[in-house]
Specification:
heterodimer, A: 683 residues, mainly alpha, 66% helix, disordered N terminus, disordered C terminus, B: 169 residues, alpha/beta, four-stranded mixed beta sheet, two-stranded antiparallel ribbon, 4 helices, 6 strands
């Protein structure tokens, strides 16, 4: 019986084994075969189950793989190389950037090389328009930006608007009107769109042509125009041009025979963008009088302009509520940008903003609008960046929300979220929150919100927080992994690192930190050098550490003495010199120490007693009585009260020859004579 | 007028080498064996010992695949593949273009590698220009060549302090 069962079951077992192998290779999501677990089951059980399920052979559903799945799987096996620079740089020691400034410079020069090539391609399109690729790649072909349709007609005007030629389209429009041909409302609206977008300045291409023509003239005019209205410009618009009085857009708007809602909306948005918020508000009142309906973008623009329309916080909030009521009346659906605009305005409303922002968020949730990162950024700013840091749990809630998913960019202000959040964590000194924020940044696509500058700022703040709050080995681990591949430490970061090393009594790592400082190009910063020297010379250390410190001191001395092409040489301070002398003395480098002592006279400073004692110790160890005598002479020339003490020490501790003894005596006589002079004065 | 007359006169006479005036020093002897001239392709002739020469130049073409690699790698020369001539013409243009774009910086010949659609240009440059200038030229060359050849072009640059001299000939 048992044998039969075994014989019978062996064939089934083979099938079972192959099935189980398939199962283990496949995913765990196959509900139908959950009965087969990968753990071993008894023979009888498997025989039983196989008989039950032999009738139903359930084929697993076919998996469809993404085209890039293999590449993504391979990419997940490759970890980040902590020694390499960013991918855009060449992998060569000469061409790798060492610090933030260098990385910016190199990435910008590569970009300017690209735009130089694009300029060549635009100037000589006839060499680049052969289609040799099969299928044709449109992004590698030169763009055709010259208008094809000639003559004075509406189609020509439409084409020039499409090609974004501002001046040409305005001229053509005027010509059309003068010739008596009416231009349709749509075309006029699109012309207004173009003018309001560019603010009656020129688009980028035309600017290039202008600059080619007259190089000296535009710069002076532009800067004069910009200065009076700087504040509006900086905050409101990015294109840098001003809304001039009675410019082309206004002129065309006035002479339009009929206007519809679109015309008003475009004008309002253009005025807000280019720094004329009062006019925008007047235009809005006109729109209401004409009983037109504005669209959601216009309302968003008006809400962002509110801080420039009213001064008092309460008035600003009243105006915002006013706009929102208009929106309700005109049945315009708000979107996420509307709420972001409201919060941005509330940023500048102080206490009023704080009280109201939470209800804004509740409204957003009620309308089922997903908040974007900019929403959270505005909230953090409102609650955490004001002068009084009231503790609140908002940041925890926000980080919880952000952890859950990967965001897509919806608002230009999204990019500032991570930097603001990290700043808030640093202010609150909460390292756990910072770790959570870091994890959420690495999730999905969230890392794409940080470009090079923001990445540097973010990691810089994170590293400062780490240095303050974490153990030294954790700090050093992060330091090794993050620099120089992810970010370049700032001088502040190096300061914090030195403090952390000091707190952990780990000062042997200082020479390697000094190497990094040199590489980053901070070797001429006085404050860093002072900090380094004082940390190194504070206590006596074991022999090899002392030698390493002396080498650092030598480097620092060299950094002081060499002067760059346009840099003034670094000035020595008294304390720095003293520290260097002590470091040299402790390492037994008497000659170097003496050279440094002579610097004291040049900078008119006096060495401290401790420095001179150290020097004497060193001279004793290396058996150089000459140096000791020179030291006493130096002390006498300064007129120091410790001269006598030094002299007595020299006499006792050194074996002096006759000549040296006489020299020592002569010094004493100098100081004695000065004493007797003073005595006689007293008499 | 005189020449055709003279030619006809010469043709009338049975041709032999003695016709040619020997006084002029020109002789047209009969070559019974094929002429075997020295090969001069891609070889630097040995001189006084003051001519510095890189590894690439020091080795003659018969050392390719033994001591040298190829400067241009593509599948056009395999059996059944087309486009070998086009690749060669592209190579010539690329070398001239890069020689001009990086003035005085090329330490060695340019190595061109083609993988599917991608063209990888491997340069060894001398560190004569500042890194920012080199990056400007790299960005410029990559974009221009991509638009010219309608395929992605990537420059991989390695820098050396001076040209690497293998020996002096």
């Amino acid at each position: 019986m048992a044998a039969r069962r075994l014989g019978g079951s062996s064939w089934q077992q083979m099938r079972l084994l192959s099935r189980r192998w398939c199962l283990q290779a496949g995913s765990a999501g196959k509900r139908e075969q959950n009965r087969y677990s990968s753990s071993s089951t008894a023979l009888e059980e498997t025989v039983e189950n196989s008989e039950v399920t032999r009738e139903e052979i359930v084929l697993p559903r076919r998996k469809t793989w993404d085209k890039l799945a293999v590449l993504q799987a391979l990419a997940s096996t490759v970890n980040r190389d902590p020694t390499a620079a960013h991918y855009m740089f060449q992998d060569d020691p000469f061409l790798m950037p060492r610090n933030t400034a260098s990385s910016r410079l190199l990435s910008l020069s590569k970009e300017s090389g690209r735009s130089a090539a694009k300029y060549i391609i635009k100037e000589f399109p006839q060499y680049f328009d052969k289609t040799i690729a099969e299928p044709n790649i449109p992004c590698l072909m030169p763009e055709n930006l010259t208008p094809q349709i000639e003559g004075v007609s509406e189609a020509a005007l439409k084409e020039r608007i499409h090609l974004r030629r501002v001046k040409a389209s305005v001229d053509l429009f005027d010509q059309l009107l003068q010739a008596g041909n009416p231009v349709s409302l749509e075309t006029t609206n699109s012309l207004l769109d173009l003018l309001c977008f560019y603010g009656d300045g020129e688009s980028a291409q035309e600017k290039q042509h202008e600059q080619k023509g007259d190089l000296e003239e535009p710069e002076g005019n532009a800067s004069e125009q910009k200065s009076p209205k700087r504040q509006f410009q900086k905050s409101l618009n990015s294109s840098g041009s001003r809304w001039r009085e009675n410019n082309n857009a206004e002129r065309i708007f006035k002479i339009m025979p009929e206007r519809n809602a679109h015309s008003y909306c475009t004008m309002i948005r253009g005025m807000v963008k280019h720094g004329a918020p009062a006019k925008a508000y007047d235009m809005f009142t006109d729109l209401l009088n004409e009983r037109h309906k504005a669209d959601v973008h216009t309302f968003n623009a008006l809400i962002t302009a509110v801080p420039y329309l009213k001064e008092k916080f309460a008035e600003r909030w009243v105006l915002v509520k006013d706009f929102l009521n208009h929106m309700v009346q005109q049945e315009v659906q708000p979107n996420v940008l509307t709420f972001n605009a409201v919060l941005k305005t509330l940023r500048r409303c102080g206490g009023v903003g704080r009280g109201v922002s939470l209800s804004v968020i509740k409204e957003m949730n009620a309308l089922d609008i997903e908040p974007s990162l900019a929403t959270y950024e505005h909230l953090l700013y409102i609650f955490y960046r004001s002068a009084e840091l009231r503790p609140s749990t908002i940041i925890t809630e926000i980080i919880e929300e952000v952890e859950k998913k990967s965001f897509t960019p919806q608002d230009p202000d999204d990019a500032n979220f991570f930097a603001t959040a990290m700043q808030a964590c640093c202010d609150l000194k909460d390292i756990k929150l910072a770790y959570r924020l870091n994890k959420s940044m690495e999730k999905g696509d969230n890392w794409k919100f940080l470009d090079m500058d923001r990445l540097n700022a973010y990691w810089s703040k994170f590293f400062s927080l780490l240095c303050m709050m974490e153990q030294i080995d954790v700090v050093l681990k992060w330091y090794k992994e993050m620099t120089p591949s992810l970010f370049y430490p700032s001088p502040r970061n190096m300061f914090d690192l030195l403090q952390a090393l000091d707190a952990a009594n780990h000062l042997e790592a200082i020479p390697s930190v000094w190497g990094d400082i040199k590489q980053l190009g901070f070797s001429r910063r006085q404050d860093l050098l002072e900090e380094l020297l004082s940390l190194m010379s504070r206590e006596q250390h074991p022999e090899e550490t002392q030698l390493a410190f002396a080498k650092c001191a030598e480097d620092i001395k060299a950094a002081h003495e060499q002067s760059g092409r346009d840099q003034a040489p670094l000035e020595w301070t008294g304390s720095a010199l003293g520290h260097v002398v002590m470091l040299f003395s402790r390492a037994g480098r008497t000659q170097d120490a003496w050279n440094m002592m002579e610097h004291f006279q040049k900078i008119n400073r006096i060495p401290t007693d401790q420095v001179m004692d150290e020097f004497l110790n060193c001279a004793k160890q290396t058996n150089c009585p000459d140096e000791a005598i020179k030291l006493v002479k130096l002390a006498a020339s300064f007129g120091l009260p410790s001269t006598l003490k030094l002299k007595s020490r020299t006499e006792q501790e050194f074996e002096l020859s006759e000549k040296q003894k006489k020299a020592l005596e002569s010094i004493q006589s100098d100081s004695d004579s000065s004493d007797s002079d003073s005595d006689s004065d007293r008499d | 007028m005189a020449a055709p007359v003279a030619a006809r006169a010469l043709r009338a006479v049975p041709w032999s080498r003695s016709c040619v005036p020997a006084a002029l020093g020109a002789r047209r002897d009969l070559h019974a064996t094929p002429a075997c001239l020295k090969t001069r392709a891609a070889r630097v002739r040995v001189g006084k010992g003051d001519k510095p020469v890189t590894y690439e130049k020091a080795h003659a073409p018969h050392y390719i695949a033994h001591r040298k690699g190829w400067l241009s790698l593509h599948t056009g020369n395999l059996a059944g593949e087309a486009g070998a001539a086009e690749r060669t013409v592209e190579d010539v243009f690329l070398r001239k273009f890069l020689y001009g774009t990086f003035p005085g910086c090329l330490a060695n010949e340019v190595v061109l590698k083609r993988r599917a659609n991608l063209l990888v240009v491997c340069l060894v440059l001398v560190q004569s220009l500042a890194p920012s200038k080199l990056y400007f030229l790299i960005g410029y060359a990559e974009t221009l060549l991509s638009h010219f050849y309608k395929c992605p072009v990537r420059l991989e640059v390695q820098t050396v302090p001076t040209k690497v001299i293998y020996k002096y000939l």
